[in-house]
Amino acid sequence: MRRQLRIGPRLTRAWHEMEQVTIGAIEGFCVGGGAALAVALDFRHHGPRRAHPDPEIALGMNMSWQSVPRMLHLMGPARTKQAVIIADEKVSAQEAL
After folding, report:
1. Of 25, 39, 52, 58, which sees the most CB atoms within 10 A?
2. pTM score, two decimals?
3. pLDDT for the residue numbered 54
């Protein structure tokens, strides 16, 4: 069980530390681990139907794949706090932009 819990953080760290430029195209829902992978990429392109809820917060789970520190780096403290507070709400691509 412990080994299984370490796979996600190792995966996102590997994507984040990759020397090649990483680009993700996101269409539809980007939830949980998918959102953690998205913030580990260098560039993200969101389709018009993109929604980004993070239900972990509402379920009382932590965001253990290091997505919060990466969000801090990408968006700054104020926007990261806002994103985490409203994490279980659907955010459209236009709102995210």
Report:
1. 39
2. 0.73
3. 66
